[in-house]
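A quick aside before the break. I want you to see a complete sequence-to-structure record at least once, exactly as it would be stored in a machine-readable document. Don't worry about memorizing anything.
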Amino acid sequence: MRPLASRMAVMTGEGALSVYARAKELEREGRSIIHLELGEPDFHPSASVNDALKRALDEGKDRYCAVAGVLALREAIAAYLHGTRKLNVSPENIVIAPGCKIALFMAMMALIDPGDEVLYPDPGFPGYPSITVGMGGVGVPFELSERNNFQPDIEEIAAKITPRTKILITNSPGNPTGTVYTDGVQRRLAELAVKHDLLVLSDEIYARVIYGGEYISLMNYPGMEERTLIIDGFSKSFAMTGWRLGYAVAPPRIVPALEMLAVNSYTCVAEFSQYAAIEALQDRDGTTPRMVREFSKRRELFIRDLNRVPGFRCSSPEGAFYAWVNISETGMSAQELCRIMLEEAGVAAIPGAAFGAAGNDFIRFSFASSTVNLQEAVERILLVSAVWQKTEIAR
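That is the input. The structure line, written in tokens, reads:
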């Protein structure tokens, strides 16, 4: 038999999904599992969004539509980005995709040639290095370290730029750390991008999920409009994970390439869901701010409770809905701790190495779950924590 394409041997999956699969197996066996592994809000779109979807179907909006997306939605996104991020974006620079991942995948496919180097955060979303090597590129991680409050180290990034460096990936607020890049860091990242003529993929899927302050997109900085691609979508800010709606905002010269890739893959995104997305963006009911306020309350309680667990150390994230817990003082590996928590306590979480080598001593918990579940999860973890306390004593 002929072998598969070589790219399949170097691309990787997601730790969250493998943990989720095992957790579901345990549930089928009758076990009680608290799911804190997936980054999925436990909210749903407002009734007005669902009504807009039904109305669109009733009006026959179930046909092929423009490859880049329904113009009314692209206009709504442009207005939304202006209102929430002070960006002046043309609807012509927006391409709708069936999910944020596809938007990211298409952007990287359009930009990466074999041998091109891509700078990406570590720890970070697993798709960044996986897609990079799948396209024949070379992934170059830059560390988000606890000693630097998980902010990018500009000197490290600058030292890793070579003549082959083509793309810088940023993610603020970040998965898994919850870090919101400071204005000073972003300004210096922009200066590096301009100086070295880098393209920037700014993953802004969590831009609305921040706990204080005003979000600033990397595209706002001098010289960045012509070199930045924003990747965003509806999953996190609007609790529309299963709708699979994302988009890319790209410089005019790159948009035709994204459209060409769309033509050769998914043709267009479902028309009726795009009309519902317009209603979501308008957010007449204040659903997004209300959801973020609830996440903020959970964050405060959950971080406090996690820090009660022996050997756990966790600072409060500035955005997203993840607790990034340092477990080095437990004396056990994150992989083993996650196994114990899942198999013995029924709490599903992700070993930090799933997000890169810099995450070896960490575990990611999602607090996009009810307060009751979060409190119960910590109580269960405390019950099994004697396992690693014994290990620490033995050491």
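Two observations worth writing down. The longest strand covers residues 165-171. The chain has a mean pLDDT of 95. We'll return to this after the break.
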